[in-house]
Structures are given as C-alpha cells and as structure tokens.
Design brief:
A six-stranded parallel sheet has the order 3-2-1-7-8-9, sandwiched between helices. The chain starts with a helix and ends with a helix. It has eleven helices and nine strands. It folds into two domains: about 140 residues, Rossmann fold, CATH 3.40.50; about 70 residues, SIR2/SIRT2 'Small Domain', CATH 3.30.1600.10. The longest helix is centred in the first third of the chain and has 16 residues. By secondary structure, it is α/β, with parallel strands linked by helices. The structure holds 2'-O-acetyl adenosine-5-diphosphoribose. 2'-O-acetyl adenosine-5-diphosphoribose binds next to helix 2.
Length: about 240
C-alpha cells in the first residue's frame, strides 16, 4: 500500500532528487560502513579516513584504499543502480547526489551525478594539485605524480570540505524537487544527511529505502523497508 502511494508520487513527479549511500551498493558486494560487516565495525576511521591519518602513514591508508579499489573494480551495478539510471530518463529534472565513491551510478548509466564524497578512481597530487583518473592496480604505494609529489585518493575524508559546489547543487536540487528518494544511507554523516530534514521542511515528498530505520524514518513520507535492489525496481 505504502509502496503504491510512493509509486504514484514518483510517477507524478516532474523533478526528482536522490541521495544514495553505501546501502545501494551492498548488493553489488561492496561492504557498507556501519551495518554488520561494515568497514567502521572493524576499522577506526580516524586511522584511515582523515587527512591526519594520511599524513601519519600514507602507505597504510593507501593499502586500505587500494584493497577497496580492487574489490570495487570487480563490482557491477545492481538492479537498484539500474532503476535509478532509468528513472533519470523518465523525468524532466533529475539529480542524484551520492555519498559513494565507487562509480557504480556512472557505470549503470546515471548522468547527473553529484559525488559528495569524491571518487575513488581519481588520484590527486598533494603537491601540485593535479588530478587523473586511474583504475589500474597500483603496484607501488603511495603512488607518485609526474612532479614527484605524493598522490592521494580523490575522496573526501572526515574533517575535509566537500567538492566545490557539491552541496549547493544538491541543496538546490532537493528543495526544488517534487520527490526526494533517500536510498541506503544511515544518515549519520553531515552535511549530506542534512538534505533529509531540509527536504522534509521544504514540503518535498520524501521516500526512504532502507532495510533498517534511521533517525529520519519517522519524519519521511514513506519509509520502504528492504534492500535497494528489490525496492527500487518495484517502486519505479
Ligand atoms: P553506512 O554504512 O553508514 O549506512 C549504510 C546504510 O545502508 C544503513 O542504513 C543500512 O541499513 C543500509 N543498507 C544495508 N544494506 C542495504 C541494502 N541492500 N539496500 C539498501 N540499504 C541498505 O553508509 P553511508 O550512509 O553511505 O564517508 O555512510 C556515509 C558516509 O560515512 C560514507 O560516505 C563514508 C562513511 O564514513 C566517508 O568516508 C567520508
């Protein structure tokens, strides 16, 4: 019943915004951060995902990211990613803000993607600032730039700013949307999670898709409990 109402809202929408988190890639075999088996259950993010950690021990941080790069390189988009890519073709205005760095929305065919937390396939020089896309296996860690400087993963770490304009564009998309889909995020990391109360306050119809409740579940219009790869195709 709830899914039917949510489906009607999606069908009637002219403008749709989406926020995704690690849960949308769970069924592609990529671990989340805070669910069972998630990275932050067995690792300390302070040791791996902060600029201070990288400064202290770049090789250790790079080993973590290179291992993730190898497992993400083998992953394929799932039915949830594909459903979101198809939805983009159905509505005049569509924006997908993702906290994921795995590139699976691009691989599924999504076009208007805002990468709030960067992109694991981008390497950035800490000395000259140049960036390059590189999906290859990195044999020597940390990798080096042509200028001799150290390369870092092109992701956002705790305590860092989000990419230029990413939050402004996401905010604009959310407040002007008819429907906001929130998929597979624990909604614990800000500023991304702040898009959810913003949508609620702006009167946007919010549909949350997650097997578990989050802090915002009681505030959204429709909480559809279940895995993204099942619920998204059923919804759309
Ligand atoms: P989390 O690991 O915090 O949350 C994943 C969410 O996905 C949880 O709410 C799960 O219940 C849900 N989930 C699990 N399996 C699912 C499935 N099959 N379908 C749908 N949902 C499912 O991941 P994020 O919310 O993405 O940031 O975490 C936000 C940020 O924290 C990440 O971008 C990363 C992390 O630290 C940085 O590294 C900066």
């Amino acid at each position: 019943m709830k899914i039917k109402q949510a489906r009607d809202a999606v069908r009637a929408a002219k403008s749709i915004a989406v926020l995704t988190g690690a849960g949308v890639s769970a069924e592609s075999g990529i671990p989340t951060f805070r669910s069972n088996g998630g990275y932050w259950k067995t690792h300390r993010f302070e040791d791996l995902a902060t600029p201070e950690a990288f400064k202290r021990d770049p090789k250790f941080v790079w080993e973590f990211y290179e291992e993730r790069r190898r497992s993400m390189a083998a992953a394929k988009p799932n039915a949830g990613h594909v459903a979101l890519a198809e939805l983009e073709w159905r509505v005049p205005t569509f924006t997908l803000a993702t906290q994921n760095i795995d590139g699976l929305h691009d691989a599924a065919g999504s076009r208007n993607v805002i990468k709030l937390h960067g992109d694991i396939w981008v390497l950035r020089c800490v000395a000259c600032g140049r960036e390059r896309e590189d999906r290859s296996r990195l044999e020597v860690l940390p990798p080096r730039c042509g200028c001799g400087g150290m390369l870092r993963p092109g992701v956002v770490w705790f305590g860092e700013m989000l990419p230029d304009g990413a939050m402004t564009r996401s905010t604009e998309a959310v407040v002007t949307a008819d429907v906001f889909l929130v998929v597979g995020t624990s909604a614990r990391v800000f500023p991304a999670a702040g898009l959810i109360p913003l949508a609620v306050q702006s009167g946007v119809t919010v549909v949350e898709i997650n097997p578990e409740a989050t802090d915002f579940s009681s505030e959204v219009n429709y909480m559809l409990k279940g895995p993204a790869a099942e619920i998204l195709p059923a919804l759309l």
